[in-house]
Amino acid sequence: MAGAGGGGCPAGGNDLQWCFSQVKGAIDEDVAEADIISTVEFNYSGDLLATGDKGGRVVIFQREQENKSHPHSRGEYNVYSTFQSHEPEFDYLKSLEIEEKINKIRWLPQQNAAHFLLSTNDKTIKLWKISERDKRAEGYNLKDEDGRLRDPFRITALRVPILKPMDLMVEASPRRIFANAHTYHINSISVNSDHETYLSADDLRINLWHLEITDRSFNIVDIKPANMEELTEVITAAEFHPHQCNVFVYSSSKGTIRLCDMRSSALCDRHSKFFEEPEDPSSRSFFSEIISSISDVKFSHSGRYMMTRDYLSVKVWDLNMENRPVETHQVHEYLRSKLCSLYENDCIFDKFECCWNGPDSAIMTGSYNNFFRMFDRNTRRDVTLEASRENSKPRASLKPRRVCPGGKRKKDEISVDSLDFNKKILHTAWHPTDNIIAVAATNNLYIFQDKVN
Amino acid sequence: MLSKGLKRKREEEEEQQEEEALAVDTWWLDSDHPAVAPAPPAVASSSLFDLSVLKLHHSLRQSEPDLRHLVLVVNTLRRIQASMVPTAVLPPVPSLPAAPGMADNLLASSDAALSASMASLLEDLSHIEGLSQAPQPLAEEGPQGRPIGGPPPSLGSLDLLDPATGCLLDDGLEGLFEDIDTSMYDSDLWAPASEGLKPGPEGGPGEDAPELKETELDYLMDVLVGTQALERPPGPGR
């Protein structure tokens, strides 16, 4: 099994020295729930980094151009645009409140000067256009500089308005609103490689949309049983293949992944491929199903592999092999003996995401205590790092962390019982080409870069 | 300043935190949690069962429950249930008609401590559901935890609804598993058998009788869906 190749970017998480670069967000211990980051996503070039939060806001950071006179900037990310994407709503038919929390953001490939992204809450997807304005017109005939209309009878001469530079203004405007197509909570959106369509998935259904058409969508997967008593499984994530516009996958709460081909039938209830690893009988417990529930699925950039995240591990699957993954990486195996406690406090239901680096040679996912893990697929080495304010001196190297599963704790190790389970790293993102990572720790966004960068 | 402040569901989260506070404290202090199920467990402790029922209730009390959470808790509860029933009580091929027989057998066995914990559990929940049932006893330790291939056995009167009204919990609940088609958003709303209407206290004791024959969890699901079904004439089977 070969990695996806070098491509000029050093591979993996371990040959590199990760350093703190920036942290965004309030330092205040008292975290407002609305400020909790709920999604993080780089755009296709990596120049823009978007975050969504529980308050329905989107904040976009832009990477500064490297400046020879300010070498320390080294491509820092600064706020580019902030806007309120979703507001809390009330569904009058069902007497339900609809949360404004942004579940996912996905960028569209850039086609002109403006940037487009899709953002979604539980029920509604919106297409936002983010555009720059750095000029304004002056010298109108019918209105004066204040915007007041001039009396036409007083106009004695005509002039051509001229464009004058102004301070850069970044505007975000909603261009499309895709609503009323999901009865259940949307967990995923994925833009197709055709750049014209995208899918949205909720607990029981997946819909296919055209980006231009908001009043209708095609239902392509429906796992709702005729009799809801028979419901035993829900859809947890879905994604389009990065190159084959007819192929997508979706994962389930039972730890299975189905790959579907839209060419085979209009309704893709029947999968083309079914990925499931047989359960290890020796580790079977009452919580087996819960910990097998897949919280995220991501295709590799190459399109040859996909990665799934369940509660304790990350698995890499070869699309040509359905009966087992080609790699399994343990994220925090020391939690296996604590599953009952984690069930009690609901941590066992936490949904961690995972991501690939540009060359697909390394993968990253989050854990508790503000730890996150990186796995180098080539060297088979892994590292645990921490996103914390204590390690936030500029360009300070991150020290690898170790968790002591039990027994004698060595120096610099942290014991399992000391882990803070309220500090969860659920959302991480890796720059598409460079070794820059964004890690969301509750209401703070950490950006780390490697020393070479 | 765009901060939105606290969420609406915070008081529900606080309630759950109160209920589970003791468990969380125990967890922090004691790595050998008494309720930790060893792998592979033959039989679940009753506290794990109670915890699961509590979670199920809490999940159902949400105005719009997290379906994934609900399904996972229900499936886990089924596994726990399956392991708790003593094999002597099980019929060789479990099937729905046999369920009433199993329920009777389970009711016959008793466990004082379990009854007490069930009583307190039910008491906690009674203000939500208007329960009037006696706490149901469970066989605590079965000889083996043989998983059942068919539907899980009934636990007796694990009634989660008021048999008088047939209504389960809060207002939005009968819409729990209900599908509102996008056609609901079209101009022709309010079809005659409106899915949005909350059924009144239509379910008299007589109507519930056929449903009592089914397994308890299926019963639970049944009623959630069945609040809609109550508008239709009760059929002989489902």
Automatic annotation (TrEMBL), chain A:
Record protein name field: Serine/threonine-protein phosphatase 2A 55 kDa regulatory subunit B
Family annotation (PANTHER family): PROTEIN PHOSPHATASE PP2A REGULATORY SUBUNIT B
The family this protein is said to belong to: Belongs to the phosphatase 2A regulatory subunit B family.
Domain of life: Eukaryota
Keywords: Repeat, WD repeat
InterPro entries reported in the protein's UniProt record: PP2A_PR55, PP2A_PR55_CS, WD40/YVTN_repeat-like_dom_sf, WD40_repeat_dom_sf, WD40_rpt
GO molecular function per UniProt: protein phosphatase regulator activity
GO CC, alphabetical: protein phosphatase type 2A complex
Annotated spans, Disordered: 385-409
The keyword Repeat belongs to this UniProt entry's keyword annotation: yes
From TrEMBL, chain B:
Pfam families: SERTA (PF06031)
Residue ranges with Acidic residues bias: 12-22
Residue ranges constituting the SERTA domain according to the UniProt record: 41-88
A single cellular component GO annotation: nucleus
Protein name: SERTA domain containing 1
Annotated spans, Disordered: 1-24, 135-156, 191-213
Species assigned in the record: Pipistrellus kuhlii (Kuhl's pipistrelle)
InterPro entries: E2F-SERTA_domain_protein (IPR052262), SERTA_dom (IPR009263)
